[in-house]
Amino acid sequence: MSTLRLALLTSFLIVSQARAETLEDAWRLAAERDAGLAAIRSRAEAGRAGELAARAERWPKLTVDGSYQRLDDAPSFSFPVDGGTFTSPELVGGDDYLMGRARVEMPLFTGGRVTAGIESATQASLRASLARDSYEQDLRLQVAVAYVDVLRARRALRAQQSTVLSLKAHAGDVAVMVEQEAVARNDLLAARVTLADAEQGLLKAENRHNLALAAYNRLLGEPLDRVPELAEPGATPLPAASLEELVLRANASRRELAGLEAHSQALAEQARSENAGRWPQVGLMADYQHLENQVLDDDNFAQVGVGFSWTLFDAGRISQRANALKSESRAAARDRDDLASRVALEVRQAWLDLREAAARVPLTREAVDQAEENLRVGRELYSVGLATNTVVLDAEALRLRAVSNHDNAVLDMALGDLRLKRAIGEL
Question: Does the domain spanning 23-60+109-279+317-423 belong to CATH 3.40.50.2300?
Fold first, then answer.
């Protein structure tokens, strides 16, 4: 392999390994490995299977059974005839026989029971699918919060590291000035105490960063001590739609609302299916039997018929079960209305939080510039004896606060956009 090709391959590997992990990467890993999502997907599959089973109730059902039996002594018919006794041959030869049966059943009239059962199963399947979609969006938001928490902790750690380095440099400058008797020794003590406090803050920031990483890795099914390089969020524009439009979109898109509607409808259809039990249940039957014997003139029998069953009195069992299901259906509808109001509040809160964070970003960015300039001027004035040590230390504290406020505003805006998308059901 040529040197150029080796260099290109090495560069490609380095770039591939250095590629930052994006939020989309995190969502993909969480979707592949989350046990809760796998469970709810199985429930959605179960709902679909239940719907197919309900639809199959319309079709004929074929049942086949058979048996082989052996008797200790095969019986025969014996009855008096003209003063004597007639004894038939043994019913079966060799004291053993085969029996087989095939039966076909198909409902002809059920009073709407089958149709209502199908519709109820369809709505139950729809609800399971909607619950899966809702869980997926909740999981994506949970991963996004953990992702932003890592970025927040990482920025805080870097800001604290910058403060420690700055205070170390200042303490070194003060130590030189003390040796030159340009300032009082008390300035050096104050600088060192402030530095020790900043180093303690650095330890806390490192711990928060490690905890945020562990929580993030757990959601993705990764080793807890993994230290990925996460991509920073891009620019987050404010939504063009008004708050009222966002609420309408939430009412149309939120899976939880549609899921409660489906649940209410499924219960109502169950009640209709239960009420159908008051009507006659009519079905077509076709039966074929084989009985191995030595007495009857034929071993095979076939019959076709129509049968019905009608419950005329049940002491109110059917009506009370139907009433219970109707009450459950109304309760689910009320739950849906209550959830709709909570969704509207959730959208409003996310919208307001996003606007607040967007307004904070330019203010905090300007504050960072001013704080850095304030620190620079304070150091220059202190070096020529025109400012006290307290001015420099206070300026460093202001810079750290300004950087933290700006980092939080940027990340709050990115997370606010994701929360708003979840609130309107479009994450």
Answer: no
